[in-house]
Input
Amino acid sequence: MKVAIGADHRGFFLKEKVKSYLIRLGHSVLDEGTFSGERVDYPDYAFKVARRVASGQAQRGILICATGIGMSIAANKVDGVRAALCLNPKMARLSREHNNANVLCLGADFLLFPQAQRIIRVWLSTRFAGGRHTRRLKMISFFSSLQGRKPETISSRGDSSLCSERSLPSPPIGGGR
Output
């Protein structure tokens, strides 16, 4: 699997260990930086990795900063990305099974490398469950497509009509996207 990886200065050292771990597992790694512990802005790296995943240049992405929060917020601004902050293997499994997360965000200040390894191993090996979760992801995609439109042009019947089965498009949500 091709995995894009990125970190800010706070996640740099864990990123280097994760990169080596991914290579040992047989994955191809696209390292989007940062390449030192020098202070940088995390959104730059979140957008680089998220764009690689959204464009299909990578099947998955991993982002690391101090908490994982900023990276997940930034990555989720890129259409087609479903970034999940995971602090344990159960969160990693559910982020894949239920949400088809394609970008994993980790907090270097909250995880030791062995914990990160377990989270990554579970996250990379878990498949999307589909079923009712597909409908829910379509609801999110549909709502996202409405952003920027005037509220009165969206629906006059309240928000529940936004996501009826008839109104939901079928965006690609399998595989790496």
User: Anything to note?
Assistant: The longest strand covers residues 2-7. The mean pLDDT is 89. The first helix runs from residue 12 to 24.
